[in-house]
Design goal:
This protein has helices at 3-15, 18-34, 47-65, 68-77, 83-101, 103-120, 125-140, 148-157, 161-186, 205-223, 227-242, 244-247, 251-268, 271-278, 285-299, 301-308, 315-324, 334-342, 348-373. The chain is mainly α.
C-alpha cells in the first residue's frame, strides 16, 4: 500500500468523522463568543497529554500490526467456552488493568486485543468495546493512579494511597458487581468457534520487539515529563522499522483531543458558565455532588474536577461525582472517546449511550446513598 493511498484513507476518515465536525462548529461558535485570537489557541492545548496519547497510539498500532494480538487472541479463544465467558473475561481484564495503567492505557491494550479476537471468532464487537469502556470507567475510579481526575484529587486531598482506595472501594465494588451482572445478561452463552486459521497471519517479530521495547521506555519518560522527546524517539524508531504503521495511526482521534481542549477551555472561560458555577452553592456537599456529575456531561470529568475544586475542597464528594460522571454521555470521560474511536462501527456511540446513560443514573443513585444516606 503506497503513501498516497494511506494518506487518502486518513483524509476520508476525517471527512466522515461527525464528532470532529461538531467540535469544529463548536470552535467557530465559541471563537465568536469569546473573541479569542487564533494565536492563543495553542496555549489552550495540553501538549504533553497529546504527545503521550500519540505515543501510545503509535506503539499500540505497532503491536497490533505485528500480528501478536491475533496470536494472543487465538490462545485466549481456546480457553473461552462461550460468548458470555469471553465478555466477562475481557471486561474484567479492562477494569483490573485500569486500576494500575490508567483507563486510557487499559483501553489501548484491551480494545485491539478484542478486535483481534473478533476477527477469529464471531462476537458482538461493538457491544464488547462499549462494555470495556464502562469497565475502565468503573475500575479506574478505585485508585489514585487509575485516571487523571483521581490523580488530581489525590494530590488535593493529601491522603495516603490506601486511604483514597478505601474511600472509593464501596462505590467501585457495587459498580463492578452491577457491570458484571449486566455483562452476563447482555451476552449469550453460545459456544465460540474459530473461523480463521492462525497460519494466515504471520508474526512480524521485528516490529513486535521494537514496539514492546519502546513501551516501558516511553511510559517512564512520559512519567518524568519528557513526553514530547519520548514521542519523537518512538516515531523515529517506528519510521525506521515500519513507516506504514505511522500512516495507520488514528490521527483523527488526536485532532479530536486537540479540539476538545480548546473548545472546553473556551467554554469554561465564558462569563455565563462562571456565573452558573458561582450560583450552584457548591459549598454544600449535595450540590457539589450533582454539579460534578452534571458538569462532567458537558466538559468531561477531568476539566470538571479541576474547575469545581476551585469552589470546594471536599475531595470525597468530588471524587465520587466526577467518576460517576464518566458514565452517561460519551464526553463524560475521554476514555469513552478513545474506545468509541477504536470501535469498527461508526455508530458505536448509539450503542454506548443505550448502556452508559442507565449506568449514570444508577451510579448517581448509588453514590448518593453511600455519601448521604448511610
Amino acid at each position: 500500500m503506497g503513501f498516497k493511498t494511506l494518506l487518502g484513507r486518513a483524509w476520508l476518515g476525517l471527512r466522515e468523522d461527525t464528532f470532529l465536525q461538531i467540535l469544529l462548529l463548536a470552535l467557530v461558535g465559541l471563537s465568536l463568543l469569546t473573541r479569542t485570537p487564533l494565536n492563543a489557541y495553542s496555549g489552550l492545548v495540553d501538549w504533553p497529554t497529546i504527545a503521550a496519547l500519540t505515543g501510545l497510539l503509535a506503539l499500540t498500532k505497532g503491536v497490533e500490526s505485528s500480528g501478536a494480538l491475533y496470536r494472543v487472541g487465538h490462545w485466549l479463544v481456546g480457553y473461552m467456552t462461550s460468548e458470555r465467558a469471553a465478555a466477562l473475561c475481557l471486561v474484567t481484564a479492562a477494569a483490573v488493568l485500569s486500576t494500575v495503567l490508567t483507563n486510557d492505557v487499559a483501553l489501548f491494550v484491551i480494545v485491539p486485543l478484542t478486535l483481534g479476537i473478533c476477527r477469529i471468532t464471531p462476537l458482538p464487537t461493538t457491544r464488547l468495546v462499549v462494555f470495556e469502556a464502562l469497565a475502565v470507567n468503573a475500575g479506574s475510579a478505585l485508585t489514585p493512579i487509575g485516571n487523571p481526575q483521581n490523580l488530581f484529587l489525590w494530590q488535593l486531598s493529601g491522603q495516603s494511597f490506601g486511604q483514597f482506595v478505601w474511600h472509593m472501594l464501596p462505590l467501585v465494588a457495587i459498580l463492578m458487581l452491577l457491570l458484571l451482572a449486566v455483562t452476563a445478561a447482555a451476552f449469550s452463552g453460545r459456544a465460540l468457534q474459530t473461523s480463521d486459521p492462525e497460519s494466515e497471519h504471520p508474526l512480524d517479530r521485528r516490529l513486535l520487539g521494537v514496539s514492546l521495547l519502546l513501551y516501558p521506555v516511553f511510559l517512564v519518560l512520559t512519567d518524568m515529563h519528557y513526553a514530547p522527546w519520548a514521542l519523537l524517539a518512538v516515531l523515529l524508531c517506528l519510521c525506521l522499522v515500519r513507516w506504514r504503521v505511522l500512516a495507520q495511526i488514528d490521527w483523527g482521534l488526536l485532532l479530536v483531543f486537540v479540539l476538545m481542549f480548546i473548545d472546553l477551555r473556551l467554554l469554561v472561560g465564558l462569563d455565563l458558565v462562571q456565573h452558573a458555577l458561582n450560583g450552584w452553592g457548591l459549598a454544600q456537599p449535595l450540590h457539589l455532588f450533582w454539579a460534578g456529575i452534571a458538569s462532567s456531561q458537558i466538559v468531561s470529568n477531568v476539566p470538571a474536577a479541576i474547575a469545581l475544586a476551585e469552589f470546594s475542597k471536599d475531595w470525597k464528594v468530588l471524587a465520587y461525582a466526577v467518576n460517576i460522571g464518566g458514565f452517561g454521555l460519551m464526553v463524560g470521560s475521554l476514555a469513552n472517546l478513545i474506545a468509541l474511536r477504536m470501535a469498527p462501527d461508526k455508530r458505536a456511540w448509539l450503542s454506548f449511550h443505550v448502556w452508559s446513560i442507565p449506568f449514570l443514573v444508577v451510579g448517581a443513585g448509588i453514590g448518593w446513598v453511600l455519601l448521604f444516606a448511610i
